[in-house]
Amino acid sequence: MAGYVVAGILLLAVAGFLLEKRRRRTHPVPPGYQEDLELPHTAEWELYHNALSLCSMKTRFCLAELEIPYLGHHIDLIETGAYETLRPKLLRVNPGGTVPVLLHNGHPIYESHEQIRYAARFVPEGIPALVPSDPAEREEMDAWVDRTTLTNPLEEPGKSAGNAVPGQTLPLFCTMIEKIPLHRIVEGLLFHFDKRRPVMFILFKLLGIRRLPRLGPLPEVIGDTRGILLGFLDELDGRLGENGGPWIMGEQFTLADVGWVVILERIRQASAENVFLDPADRPHVAAYWERLKARPSYRRAILDHDHPLIDYGRDRIAEAKTTDPNVRMLLEGA
Ligand SMILES: N[C@@H](CCC(=O)N[C@@H](CS)C(=O)NCC(=O)O)C(=O)O
User: Fold this and answer.
1) pTM
2) Atom of ligand 1 at shortest distance to CA of 111?
3) Per-residue model confidence as pLDDT tens digits over 71-85
């Protein structure tokens, strides 16, 4: 009798899991503005975003520069508390299961680089445009935006600074996850479309930052992406030195700067300014970073959305680097 009860319970659990898995099924979505899709909305502009997400910061920064008001929906990633990207509220808006998603009059725009280009077409009266009017300059700006685009960091880390920077974010993931209960990560193990991610978070949680220097292929990823990112920053330093700044396209603040500010911000959050933004190594980038932080949109799009776990993670990395020479060697390279 007891055997039947156990078997019944197991059967119910499996059926429940399969049903739930179906409800949370994800699939890739086409990038850009979705003309044929209109989702429930209450404001002209709405943004599904996350405090930590690099791409979310980019779109927030762009909207702040354009002074476009929007209704924000904060969606947790596991690093900030839970796998809300795998829950129906977000999946109804983006079956791809990622943030950010920008809605304009209910039409979603997928991919942050598409979102900033789309939003930049709606410059309110009296606000400076974020795109040069000269086609040749626009093309040049686009190439700088492409250097910041995040597409496929695991497979193509060398393609852009945007793809390299997640490798430098690993220590931050590792320290932020200390504060997240293990059972929350299990939700990712059950339903995430890329199981490598929850597995990595479980290892981070169980082993901690001090074990990062010996954690499978990750030390190599961190070393390689540091080299790639330094290369892109050298290029940026050269550009700002040549054109005299203050911005990548000279006098005009453009989408190229919107793309870069979040990469530099991620370096700050990962407690790695001394490695990448030292004025002695890259004086033009260091001065540029100070100018970026002085913009009102930096406060509105980034500091005002700060999350306590980001500050916690940043402090823990700094502490681990000062107390553990292996961690310092891994994260600073020398
Ligand atoms: N290429 C996309 C990247 C979107 C993306 O991967 N977003 C991350 C946060 S930065 C996410 O939502 N990840 C879901 C997860 O980690 O479970 C964009 O530029 O918008």
Assistant:
1) 0.96
2) 20
3) 999 999 999 999 999
Q: Are residues 280 and 143 in the same domain?
A: yes
Compute the distance from residue 92 Cα to the ligand 1 centre, in Å: 16
Q: Are residues 113 and 169 in the same domain?
A: no
105 lies in which domain range?
Answer: 25-119
Residue 298 lies in a domain: yes
Task: Tell which one of 24, 52, 53, 307 to mutate to probe ligand 1, the residue whose CB is within 8 A of the most ligand atoms.
Answer: 53
Verify that 173 and 268 share a domain, yes or no: yes
Crossing angle for the helix pair 255-269 and 161-176, to the nearest 10 degrees = 30
- pLDDT (tens digit, 9 = 90+) per residue, 253-294? 999 999 999 999 999 999 999 999 999 999 999 999 999 999
Residue 1 scores a pLDDT above 90: no
Query: Looking at the structure, do residues 294 and 265 belong to the same domain, yes or no?
Result: yes
Q: Which residue lies with its CA nearest to atom 16 of ligand 1?
A: 77
CA of 55 to the centre of ligand 1 (A): 7
- Helices (DSSP H) in the chain: which residue ranges? 2-23, 54-65, 88-91, 112-119, 135-146, 161-176, 182-191, 196-207, 218-243, 255-269, 273-276, 283-293, 296-301, 308-323, 325-332
**Domain count across the chain:** 2
